[in-house]
């Protein structure tokens, strides 16, 4: 016996529209004790890419940048602990240990030898010069 079902054209639209509206808010903000997310801005200018990655609370020695052709990978080890002052009674203590990473591809290959990085005030700034394309060579026919 065949099954009958009612077609509802809005059944696929409305769940997507209201997804997450009634769900509880998650604590993903770094200052709220949640996991760190690397937020990245990439700009292209005069033969190079300028990348700025926000990494608040991360130490410079814990950051690793890897360049492979046109792929850039940024990773870091994150250790967060709440401070406890003497004479205080701890009601709740939150910690976060782990690694975080971000990888993306650029349109052109990067010259790894000329790339530079600077970390200041929780922002990693990368200057990634584009690799020069080899000049076309005319072949002599003999």
Explain what this protein looks like in three dimensions.
This protein is mostly beta strands and 142 residues long. It has a domain at 31-82 and 96-129: Immunoglobulin-like (Sandwich). Helices cover 4% and strands 38% of the residues. It contains 1 helix and 7 strands. The chain has one helix at residues 13-17; strands spanning 39-45, 48-54, 63-68, 71-81, 95-105, 116-120, 123-129. It has a 4-stranded antiparallel β-sheet, with no helix packed on it. It has a 3-stranded antiparallel β-sheet with strand order 3-4-5, with no helix packed on it. Strand 6 and strand 7 form a beta hairpin. The N and C termini lie far apart (79 Å). The model is unreliable at 23-33 (pLDDT under 50).
Layout of helices and strands:
Blueprint: H1 13-17, E1 39-45, E2 48-54, E3 63-68, E4 71-81, E5 95-105, E6 116-120, E7 123-129
């Amino acid at each position: 016996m065949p099954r009958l079902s009612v077609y509802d054209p809005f059944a696929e639209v409305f769940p997507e529209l209201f997804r997450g509206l009634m769900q509880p808010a998650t604590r993903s903000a770094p200052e709220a004790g949640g996991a760190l997310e690397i937020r990245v801005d990439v700009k292209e200018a005069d033969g190079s890419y300028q990348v700025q990655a926000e990494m608040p609370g991360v130490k410079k020695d814990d950051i690793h940048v890897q360049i492979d052709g046109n792929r850039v990978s940024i990773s870091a080890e994150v250790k967060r602990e709440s401070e406890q002052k003497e004479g205080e009674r701890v009601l709740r203590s939150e910690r976060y240990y782990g690694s975080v990473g971000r990888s993306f591809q650029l349109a052109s290959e990067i010259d790894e030898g000329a790339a530079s990085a600077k970390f200041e005030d929780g922002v990693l700034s990368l200057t990634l010069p584009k690799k020069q394309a080899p000049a076309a060579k005319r072949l002599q026919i003999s």
